[in-house]
Amino acid sequence: MNRLTRLLRHLWLDADDAQRAIGGDALARLEARITESESAHSGQICLCIEASLPLRYLWRTVRHGEPIGEVLRDRALTTFGKQRVWDTEHDNGVLIYLSLAEHHLEILADRGLARHVPDTDWQAVIQECSTSLRAGRLEEGLTHALEGVHARLARHFPAAGGDHASRENSLPDHPVLR
Asked: Of 14, 55, 95, 171, whose CB has the highest number of CB atoms within 10 Å?
């Protein structure tokens, strides 16, 4: 995709477009999946769907020719911090970040989970989701991502008896739209 087309697409999209692209019913189903998943482990999942990149990130690709994948990874890292995914009791928060304009997914795990799950595992989950995302089947792709994250959190941080009821839900279960 050429730089001008990318710039225009990002400038055109906003959070309302993310809401329309996924739909209220799908967002409710994704939220329910996060809530259900978190009852089976002590981890926290944050799903963030960003319609477009802020101009300062776009400028890096348009003006400086930085690869979009690197810019999106950097944006996901920034979002990880802004959403306080790192601020969970067992350092096992996970961010699932979708750039709607690019149909690009990033999965970032906090250090507690990262000790158990190598980045290659997350890349495999992303690869499984990519066909659905590129085809515009956003809910399907995000559901696959949630299932992959759930499997790894449940394996490495299973919930102790009554654990879910007694711990604070430190990240929102509803998808964050930007």
From this structure: 95
Length of the chain: 178
CA distance 136 to 133: 5
The whole-angstrom separation of Cα 70 and Cα 116 is 24
Q: Which residues, 6+ apart, have CB-to-CB distance to 47 below 8 Å?
A: 30, 34, 96, 98, 142, 146, 175, 176
- Contact in structure between 107 and 130 (CB atoms under 8 Å): no
The one-character DSSP state at 53 is -
CB contact burial 67-94 (16+ within 10 A = b; e otherwise): ebeebbeebbeebbeebebeebeebbbb
Residues in a beta bridge with 107 = 96
pTM, two decimals, is: 0.93
The one-letter amino acid at 115: R
Residue partners of 87: CB distance under 8 A and separation at least 6: 93, 170
Q: What is the DSSP string of 88-99?
A: STTS-EEEEEEE
Distance CA 106, CA 175 (A): 15
- pLDDT, tens only, 46-82: 999 999 999 999 989 878 889 999 999 999 999 999 9
